[in-house]
Amino acid sequence: MHRAEQLYNLQCTDSEFDKLARRLREVEASLGETEELRQVRLDLQKAEQALNRQQIRLRDLELENASLADKLAANEQRLYGGTVRNPKELAGLQEENTSLRQRKNQLEDVILEVMIEVEEAQERVRCARDRLTQVEKQWRAEQERLTTERGELQAHLCALDARRRELRAVMPPDELKIYDDLRRRKGGRAVVLLKEGVCQGCQVSLPSSEAQQARQGEVLVFCGSCGRILYAH
Fold it and tell me: Which percentage of the chain shows pLDDT scores above 90?
């Protein structure tokens, strides 16, 4: 086989391996909870906490309102039950009842406002739960797809690694050393095609004698401009 062709085939395998390895790293980095999922869960938690605070406030207000109603009932029993006959005491009870009614009326207005706020908070929680359900569904589907892709990539990489080991095993160590060094320094392109006497790595024309040598493939021929190995197929 053409000596440069062997290195070119190795380069194609190495390049494919590197590309898939990069993709595998991307896939593995994408597995697990996303920032969007964490944020949506946090939004639901905050909405539920806000609803809980409003419900506690409403319960406290309703308890206070019930307590005021009990006091009013007890005062009215004393006022109209005939047990209190002292005019001054009766006047005090009437004054207290008026104050209790005013407080109760004000409290009922506040309760109505808080009930509306609770309903709004419940709606926010419902929307946040719906959003979380939607995001989790999309996330699970994406995780399943990524997991499948990771398995396929790992299998393909294993095959490519075996292939490049086979290719390297039959090549002279000195040529592999040159190839590895060039690939490192030339952005992964140690071997480039020679088309119509022109290096496809730097687009410089080669002398006809060097182009002929490259076509024969008996020795490695290097571009005098970019230094890469030339492969004329």
Answer: 83
DSSP reduced 3-state for 105:
helix
What lies within 8 Å, CB to CB, of 156 at 6+ separation is 20
Structure tokens at 114: 């808080």
Give the pLDDT of residue 1: 56
What is residue 226's DSSP assignment?
T
Record: fold of 31-169: Methane Monooxygenase Hydroxylase; Chain G, domain 1 (1.20.58)
Whether residue 58 contacts residue 64, with contact meaning beta carbons closer than 8 Å, is answered with: no
Q: Rg of the Cα trace of the chain?
A: 42
Q: Which two tokens stand for residue 224?
A: 């005098």
Distance set, CA 212 to CA 25, 66, 195, 206 (Å): 43, 104, 12, 10
pTM above 0.90, yes or no: no
Q: Which are the contacts of 180, defined by CB distance < 8 A and separation ≥ 6?
A: 190
Cα atoms in the Cβ-side hemisphere of radius 13 Å centred on 176: 12
CB-based contact 16:164 (threshold 8 Å): no
Distance, CA of 136 to CA of 41 (rounded, Å): 10
pLDDT of residue 5 exceeding 90, the answer is: yes
**Predicted pLDDT at 89:** 74
* CATH 1.20.58 in the chain, residue ranges: 31-169
